[in-house]
Design brief:
The protein has nine helices and 15 strands. The protein is α/β, with parallel strands linked by helices and 334 residues long. The protein binds NADP nicotinamide-adenine-dinucleotide phosphate (NAP). NADP nicotinamide-adenine-dinucleotide phosphate binds next to helix 2, helix 3, helix 6 and helix 9.
């Protein structure tokens, strides 16, 4: 029988070819890490499944080195400190950190944040009240800079980042159009999240429906997916439109860089395209949390969580999210 204190973890055994499959990972047990000076151990309660983990499984150049073969795949985690030799973190503290696909992790505090007591449920610290929400918030407000009445389009609108970005656009008085995969998600985006419209990118008439949903063109495009969805929005962009380059999930399973959009359109429309990484915007966290708690508290912003139970579900939950089976933030509770 497994010792209760053993660390259970997934490791990457080979680089996925296309969509990750179970045999790309191995579940194993390891000794519980011992904290050295300036370190602490976190017992994880939730893993947040992130598309960025797939980027790190590939050897294409990126902002972080690839997860090595034998390494633990990347995930942000929420957990409780169980042992500490770090002056800033005490046993019992709830923290969000980059703990990976495992039940416990060692941290030096560099990528860890002690959770604000107002964040409940704790899982929200991985979704709308954590990095996913902050990504939607700074991407839309600081980079998209929408005005009341702006036409805003958000792709992966039913997902963790897109659902927040689009709802903030709606709260700011924009005409907000989502793009999502399938009628169930599109209904959710309009009926529960309050977008003005949502267009199904899997439908055969996607491009025409998108044009119909954006009769005055697009002022801000919050791009989570790239590929043919981006290309369809691209030719609807208005003069001086802003493209918030948040993610390119349609490309993450590819082994070679994908062809890009039309630069001629960028020139003739004087479009600003700005990529960003949420990690550069930590200074916005206090304003973000105050605003989000207010909007959630008065019912103007809603969120969903897509929770699988048990560490062994991590690979399936991850592939499910990459394949679009999730509604809201994809989590694994352990
Ligand atoms: N820049 C940053 O700092 C930062 C931080 C966090 C996340 N991100 C990016 O934000 C994006 C969303 O992340 P998330 O965590 O919120 O994930 P998510 O939206 O909750 O889940 C991913 C969604 O992507 C959509 N998708 C997958 N393949 C697609 C394809 N080929 N074409 C169109 N849509 C596809 C699916 O939705 P549908 O079923 O609706 O198609 C799926 O549900 C990702 O690109 C991620 O890398 C960036």
């Amino acid at each position: 029988m497994q010792a209760p204190s053993a660390n259970r973890r997934f490791v990457l055994v080979r680089r996925p070819q296309g969509m990750p499959v179970a045999d790309d990972f191995r579940l194993e047990e390891a000794p519980v890490p011992e904290p050295g000076d300036g370190q602490f151990v976190v017992r994880h309660l939730f893993l947040g499944m992130q598309p960025a983990a797939r980027i790190r499984m590939s050897e294409l150049p990126s902002y972080e080195p690839p997860t090595p073969i034998g390494g633990v795949p990347y995930a942000q985690t929420v957990g409780v400190v169980v042992a500490s030799r770090h002056p800033g973190f005490a046993p019992g503290d709830h923290v969000a950190s980059d703990g990976g696909w495992q039940t416990q992790s060692l941290s030096d505090g560099a990528r860890a944040v002690r959770l604000d007591d107002r964040i409940r449920p704790l899982s929200a610290a991985l979704g709308c009240l954590g990095a996913s929400g902050l990504t939607g918030y700074v991407g839309l407000l600081d980079i998209g800079r929408p005005e009341p009445g702006s036409a805003v389009v958000v792709s992966a609108a039913a997902g963790a980042v897109g659902s927040v970005a689009g709802q903030i656009a709606r709260i700011r008085g924009c005409r907000t159009v989502g793009i999502a995969g399938g009628p169930r998600k599109c209904r959710h985006v309009v009926e529960e999240l309050g977008f003005d419209a949502c267009v199904d990118h899997q439908a055969p008439d996607f491009e025409a429906s998108l044009r119909d949903a954006c009769p005055d063109g697009v002022d801000v495009y919050f791009d989570n997916v790239g590929g043919r969805v981006r290309d369809a929005v691209w030719f609807l962009l208005n003069d001086h439109a802003r493209v918030v380059l948040c993610g390119l999930i349609s490309e993450y399973n590819a082994e070679v860089p994908q062809p890009g959009p039309s630069w001629r359109q960028a020139l003739v429309r004087r479009i600003t395209v700005q990529g960003f990484l949420v990690r550069d915007h930590a200074r916005r966290r206090d304003a973000f949390l105050d605003d989000m708690l207010g909007w959630i508290g008065d019912g103007r912003l809603r969120y969903r969580e897509d929770v699988s139970v048990g560490l062994e579900q991590a690979p399936a939950a991850f592939a499910g999210m990459l394949g679009g089976r999730n509604l809201g933030k994809t989590l694994v509770s352990i």
